[in-house]
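[Solved] Which block belongs to which protein?

Original post:
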Amino acid sequence: MDYALIWAVIIAIAVLAYVILDGFDLGVGILFPSLNDDEKDAAMNSIAPIWDGNETWLVLGGGGLFAVFPLAYSVIMPAVYAPIIAMLIGLIFRGVAFEYRYRTKKGRYLWDWSFAGGSFVATFSQGMILGTLLQGIEVADRQYAGGWFDWLTPFSIFCGIAVTMGYTLLGGCWLLIKTSGSIEAKLFPKCKRLTLMFLAAIGVVSIWLPFISPEIAARWFTFPNAAAFFLIPIISACAAYKLWHSLSAQKALAAYMWTLVIYLMAFAGFAISIFPYMVPRAITLWEAAAPENSLKFLFAGAAFLLPIIIAYSAYSYWVFRGKVRADEGYHE
């Protein structure tokens, strides 16, 4: 068995699960300033029981990278220290705001802005980390050889914008599923505008990416790869049409699911662009992997824990299914 490849798939699934699950609750935070007080309470209650469980996948992805691909971890971390620190600070502000905004009246606006600001900073930082990885990291003698601000480029900034638009759209669709009343009237037209901005941003990133590296361009635009890989933009275009139609028909669940299809296609496109590298165009996943005995030992633990995590997450979503109101929540 190729344990390095298996672990690469596991980490990729963990990252995708994090983007899908924590993406919508970060998006709810970004939308927070556009809501009134009752709508903010309902929005908070819609994610309060599940937001911390969603971040389990971030821990799994980061911890798995450290344990299974230590060389990649040692190269990637110095390259993106600044956006990672910013992301963690944003997540801390969000977590504190969850608890404290219910404990104060006069200062609630401070925690509202902490929740919104922390959500935006965490989201934008994740997009910049993605952009830094896609554009490539300078490596020499199996260690990071770039500068302090290699993560700060026009491409990484635009990736930050694209991820922010995508998370905000996911958050809007989630609120349409979980709430009713004034939020619906406000968010259906807003989600249509967000759809256009998200599609424009991800389209620019997708067109820009092949120009970053001749290797990526060759992978996408040479036969027979091109014939297969161009199914991704075709499926994305069909999903975008269905998403727009669902929002126009005010079908919230369908809109959320079609947004996820676009995310899956984007994730597949990025994976195709960098495979088989853990550090794009520098270190392959087999070069970065820990010794095989370590991979086997960790895989045994993952085989036991992953079904538990999945079952717990599914049970949480099932228990807290249905729409929420502003006057109900776990804090009561």
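(Second protein starts here: sequence line, then its structure tokens.)
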Amino acid sequence: MLKLRPYQQEIAKAILASIFTRRGFTFSVEIARQGGKNELSAQLEVLLLTMYMNDGGNLIKCSPTFKPQTVISMQRLKERLNDAGFAPYWRSELGYMIHLYNACAIFLSADESANVVGNTAHILLEVDESQDVSKEKYTKEFKPMGATTNVTTVHYGTTWDDSTLLEEVKQTNLELQRKDGIKRHFRYDWKEVAKHNPDYRAYVEAERARLGPDHPLFLTQYCLVPLRGGGRLFTSTHKAQLQGAHARLNHSAVGKVYVAGLDLAGEIEQQDELIKQMLTPSRDSTVLTVAEISPGPQPTLHVLEHYAWIGKPHTDLYPQFLDLLKHTWNCQSVAVDATGIGEPIAAFLKQELGSRVVPVHFTQKSKSELGFGLLAAINSGRLKMYARDNSDECAEFWRQIDLARSQFRPNQTMNFFVDPSEGHDDFLMSLALLVESVRDYKPRTAKGRIS
């Protein structure tokens, strides 16, 4: 068995004391990502199964999803049972129960659709990744599982925003601690974990450099600082970092490498003079953003040019897209909005440009990744906008940057957008796609032979 670190031991002792004295405390445990909360949970389960294998009883653990989270938890428990010499004695049942003689660990999904009513927790109730579990699901279906046994409950996780189940339990525990002095909330950020693991320190410091110290993922996963709802996506610091000093260009240069992001507007059937006016706030644009990519371990993007079209059918723009991407700039990678009506455009460009085209289908998850990637590029100084000029494109770009909002959702995802009442976010999305175009970019190397 792996030896628990001091902070893990502190948590384990508090949980075991509550179980053995039948006090039925509810604990909240925040440990930085990869800091050992799952190992702590597995070793507690092994200990409790062995202690109750004669008298019997259930411990129940739920996770936001059955696959992969619940499956991973079950596999870890099996491995730790084997490590402890119980390989011949434990048995699995129905794909979600692990028995050690009369004691049983039951693993359940906390997904909204999961049918879990009817189970009873006699020994311990664990809620893994509590920040991703529905408050309603927990209150109605999981919390009552320990009612008749006054069971001890543990909520594990990393923080997210201030509206999650984990944050609610944490605040309740902090208030109880102030009243009776009994510690119920345990918090260990990455610096605490790093005291015991130099390799972990090196990894997290590299993540801080890559993402930036105020990136939502770094703040929540490693610093354990909850996000306060939504708000503006970009701070004044972000905007200062994004502003570059280089000039805008409308053509390529020999020896330089270029990439692009293409956001496609929704098409309309009828056009009039107002629709044809560029950058009209009430109309969505098709926007192509082109940047020069500077070589290095973390490529830097210098935005050089914007193209915007309003009211033109995509079929009319095919030749122009291709000419700009292939001949004007010879872009080595272009991320294209391939959602809905964007799919045939992406397919057309891929047919002409091959692997240089990166189709992006907008989903909650993929858009969240685009937003996090955009913030990381700005935070780390890897994305620079051309110097401000008097163009409509430049003005609209900065207007959308100023108006951009963020909205944080469960499962560590975010949405980013411009409120429709204030305009569109086509320049913003094109910029995010530009960053996406280099996520898996590898410089092309010349091929030849030695004579």
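Accepted answer:
You had them paired correctly. Confirming on the second one: The radius of gyration is 27 Å.
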